[in-house]
Amino acid sequence: MPQPDLTLTPAGPALAPRYRDRRTAVPSHPVRTSRNSYLRLFGVPGARAFIVGNLIARLPMGMFGVSAVIMIAAAYDSYALAGGVTATGMAAGALTAPWIARLVDRYGQARIAVPATVYAVLGHLVLLLCVHEKAPVWALFATTALTATSPNTGGMSRARWAHLLKDDRDALHTANAFEQATDELCFMLGPVVAALLCSTLFPEAGTLVGAALFLTGVLIFAAQRSTEPPVSPRAATGSPLRVPGMAPLLAVFLATGAVFGSMEVVTVAYVDGPVAGPVLALQAAGSCAAGLLYGRARRTVRLRTCLAAMAVLMTVPLLAASTGSLLALAGGLLLAGMATAPTMVTGMGLVQRLTPASQLNEGMTLTVTALLGGIAAGSATGGWAADHAPFASFGFLVPAVAAAVALTLRAATEEGGRA
């Protein structure tokens, strides 16, 4: 596997001017260094290609859920059924994701991600056919489980950065911030693209386009073998959950996921109209901007500090909603989102340092699983609060409380050291 040589440049630690592939001994083009930390990432040999492929593959992650809801609701005239089917698919994916990630760590990204993606795409297409033919309801629940083999594309991209930049902690911090901003961008644009396709073309269009993008992106990503982390077939077979500090950290991510899930539901319930999407997107926009700024910082802060900031900022939408002003709520969500990306970047960086390199994909996928579990729990709790609200802004108590719980869990288990 080709390895980059690091050297010290006036702009800081960077890749050496020439990058040699040990298998071919053919030097590549010189790497251009830059004082802009993000431009330096694009200067890493092979990085641009896998960034593009991963971006294409990650966009459908924000499309599939909305596309399925629109497609199923249009055919069966039931949003309850549509929500149940998509929730089943999410739950199945959360259960299988760590196992897929373990296979990726053991056998390599290309060998596992490509067939797993093909199988998941076939699952989406089978679900589409079942909906189009108005198959029995049980068939929808059964076929949506076939999509559960989708690999964690974001985790695989972060694993590549961890491999390429393992000797440059500042550059790895910037890469993690870039990946988080990419997540926010995809989950902002994905639902919009899906809704546009389904409404302007036909209800199944979002699923079809999403499946095509997903497969194309993974194929491009997997083809970049020079940046793929080496496999460790003889690595320890134990779960990263056994690593000291990992289980308490996953509990923090579980509570953090509840913040995201509940905020989405209570905001939609409070706004209750077509502007709910754009208003909610402001939170993601704030997170994306803050993440990019945080990525340029030379020093990170403790995860506990980030969680404390999130706990404080999550009270802003509650206060804004109590005024009854939609404009105030939009501004409150923008501010609240600014704590999200720094928290995720710092937390993911801590996961990378706790998890053995041979189990990095599995460790980060467990983190995503914890987040998904928290999102599901937060959505359910937020929905209950919205239905039983004694006053209009009552639902916004849920994300504020969830953020406080995440902070409390971290404060109770933190062993010290920079995160």
Estimate the helix proportion, in percent: 55-70%
The topology string of helices and strands comes to EEHHHHHHHHHHHHHHHHH
The number of domains: 2
Report the end-to-end length measured between terminal Cα atoms.
30 Å
The class by helix and strand makeup works out as mainly alpha
**Strand percentage:** under 5%
| Annotation field: number of helices | 17
CATH superfamily of the largest domain: MFS general substrate transporter like domains
Q: What gyration radius follows from the Cα positions, in whole Å?
A: 21 Å
Q: Write down the overall geometry.
A: globular
CATH topology of the largest domain: Growth Hormone, Chain: A
Show unreliable segments: 1-34
Identify the CATH class of the largest domain.
Mainly Alpha
Total beta strand runs: 2
Mean pLDDT rating = 79
Largest sheet, strands/sense/barrel:
2 strands, antiparallel
CATH architecture of the largest domain: Up-down Bundle
Strand order of the largest sheet: 1-2
InterPro entries: MFS (IPR011701), MFS_trans_sf (IPR036259)
Protein name: MFS transporter
Keywords: Membrane, Transmembrane, Transmembrane helix
Pfam families: MFS_1 (PF07690)
Summary keywords:
mainly alpha, 69% helix, 419 residues, disordered N terminus, Growth Hormone, Chain: A
Q: Would you kindly provide a written description of the structure presented here, covering whatever features stand out?
A:
This protein has 419 residues and is an all-alpha fold. The chain folds into two domains: 47-227, Growth Hormone, Chain: A (Up-down Bundle); 242-413, MFS general substrate transporter like domains (Growth Hormone, Chain: A, Up-down Bundle), CATH 1.20.1250.20. The protein is 69% helix and 2% strand. The chain contains 17 helices and two strands. The protein has a two-stranded antiparallel sheet with strand order 1-2. Helix 3 runs parallel beside helix 8 and helix 11 (276-295) crosses helix 15. The two termini are 30 Å apart. InterPro entries: MFS (IPR011701), MFS_trans_sf (IPR036259). Keywords: Membrane, Transmembrane, Transmembrane helix. Pfam families: MFS_1 (PF07690).
